[in-house]
Amino acid sequence: xxxxxxxxxxxxxxxxxxxxxxxxxxxxxxxxxxxxxxxxxxxxxxxxxxxxxxxxxxxxxxxxxxxxxxxxxxxxxxxxxxxxxxxxxxxxxxxxxxxxxxxxxxxxxxxxxxxxxxxxxxxxxxxxxxxxxxxxxxxxxxxxxxxxxxxxxxxxxxxxxxxxxxxxxxxxxxxxxxxxxxxxxxxxxxxxxxxxxxxxxxxxxxxxxxxxxxxxxxxxxxxxxxxxxxxxxxxxxxxxxxxxxxxxxxxxxxxxxxxxxxxxxxxxxxxxxxxxxxxxxxxxxxxxxxxxxxxxxxxxxxxxxxxxxxxxxxxxxxxxxxxxxxxxxxxxxxxxxxxxxxxxxxxxxxxxxxxxxxxxxxxxxxxxxxxxxxxxxxxxxxxxxxxxxxxxxxxxxxxxxxxxxxxxxxxxxxxxxxxxxxxxxxxxxxxxxxxxxxxxxxxxxxxxxxxxxxxx
Length: 456
Known about the structure:
Blueprint: H1 15-41, E1 56-57, H2 62-67, E2 95-109, E3 115-133, E4 137-160, E5 169-194, E6 197-218, E7 230-252, E8 260-268, E9 271-282, E10 288-289, E11 294-300, E12 303-311, E13 316-325, E14 331-332, E15 350-359, E16 375-384, E17 396-407, E18 414-425, E19 433-447
Antiparallel strand pairs: 1-4, 2-3, 2-19, 3-4, 4-5, 5-6, 6-7, 7-8, 7-9, 8-12, 9-10, 9-11, 11-14, 12-13, 13-15, 15-16, 16-17, 17-18, 18-19
């Protein structure tokens, strides 16, 4: 098989290097566990748009794809496991393990120019890949959030007691809150037929719990308390399966000697999620379950993602791509916020577009100075959400990203840092505008595992 211009890879098989890699992963996992109490406290500190449907859909493109605008469907790499296209999993040479974490600061504003500042952190995803046959047959496993629900909004108002003998005006606060979401576990294979063509497939397990609540607190009137506080909460457990099929086609020497073009795509089959919902109602902190558990199904649509990547030489990567999913075909037999099961209104088809560039000054020179071995990335993306509280307006998000792929002293290991700034929605009518600042970090290590030493 010919050498590929993008084959930038470092190997290390020393026991000391492997020990350092294991310690690096343990340090990252420890850090995630250390911040988990804070994440639990901030479980509701997110976008108000996550209240609708099954939550806000999450984009997961790994350390490299995130920095170039989530345009990763056609990416070839020996240093990363592509989470978007199973067709790229055949490229693996080393066993690769990556784990990421993201911190987000969010500023929410409405039409009255009122603002709220929130912050939260979450696990970005875990990816493991290893070759069964180098550059021929590869396996990949992954875990990442599919959707996220994290909101907390309060409304204030007044009402009359309704008793002519006690014409009191009573103030009240209504708090709407939610947390949880859907997680996705993926496992599959990638197979290369020849140097230019590979395919792959994965099985995807979806599961999670979404909690929504409404708390009504009445203020005391001049004659004392007139109404009892109430707390209504629902907990919905979801689970189901889907499958993804991907392909990657590559051609060398297209516009110049040693350049390279890749075209890739991935198709995800529709998924049916089984749903069980429990509703509870109570006063203050006391809650009683109402009736029996409600069961139903949510039929989610298929998804198609496609992309193209151009490698002028082993220093540059230029990538573009997008995805489409007809969420207007979603059907649910259980009530979902913002969704009318009778008319299927309140939904939009999901469209996501992105493009970006990566520059690695050293190319494949592993002995170059450290700054030259840093990968510099920039990207921009746009997407349209599948649901909107205002049916006359789509909820759109524009994000600018920049990142670095930092080499480490451990052969085959890199630290990826990405920064994103984006805006979602509009501060008009009943809608709000989200401005978010997100910092993500992922550790990506590579080592030769599962190989039996040969005697010479």
